[in-house]
Amino acid sequence: MKIGIDLDGVVFNSENYISAFVELKYMDQIRDDELNFKSNSTKNRYHISSANFEELLKVYESSIMKCPLMPYVKEAIDFLKSCGHRLYIITARGKYGEKHIALTKKRLKKEKIEVDEYHFAQTEKTSICKSLNLDLMIDDGYEVVNGLSKNGIKCFQFISDRTEKVRHKNVEYVYNWGEICRKIEEKKKEDKMMIEENLTEDRKA
């Protein structure tokens, strides 16, 4: 399979990391009834002012090298590679400058996380997913998954506590990397069985 993988909220636990900072730093400015977790932008989710967003960008930049990985993500990626899957990092990281890309590459190298290709600054992911002819995209963002699924791209939506779920026939929810590997292997076995059944039918004919 050709599998696309998002970074924030999928490889890195950066969504919770940044959200904790925002809630602590700007608690007097945040109202529950104004939160918008369908947005991929932290600024839009919390209605952060332009002045405060500059500070947030600095925190985000520092988080690239120190926010936690998702549990067992490296082991899962290594497993998928060993099974022969082609893996592609497809992320919006880099839309605020080349420095974020350089830091991300440095962090991935430090963690020994390797994939076949890297595609940065992808704010609209449908075009790149189609051009790569992906079988599956793993992403957490509502707007991204909603757009991909409506364009016929199968998605695993990585769910955390505040993820707004996309309800579409092309979307399946996942909660950790162990589950992702299990479901991909189940799909592989189902496809193999279907091929064998078709071959048997052809022989009978």
Can you summarize the main beta sheet?
6 strands, parallel
Radius of gyration: 19 Å
Tally of alpha and pi helices = 8
How do the helices and strands follow one another from N- to C-terminus?
Answer: EHHHHEHEHEHEEH
Mean pLDDT: 91
Gap from first CA to last CA = 30 Å
Structural class: alpha/beta
DSSP strand content: 5-15%
Order of strands in the sheet with most strands: 3-2-1-4-5-6
Which tags fit this structure?
205 residues; elongated; alpha/beta; 6-stranded parallel β-sheet; 6 strands
Could you describe the 3D structure shown?
The protein is of the alpha/beta class and 205 residues long. The protein is 47% helix and 12% strand. It is built from 8 helices and 6 strands, in the order βααααβαβαβαββα. A 6-stranded parallel sheet has the order 3-2-1-4-5-6, sandwiched between helices. Helix 4 runs parallel beside helix 8. It is elongated and about 70 Å long. The two termini are 30 Å apart. 26% of the residues are buried.
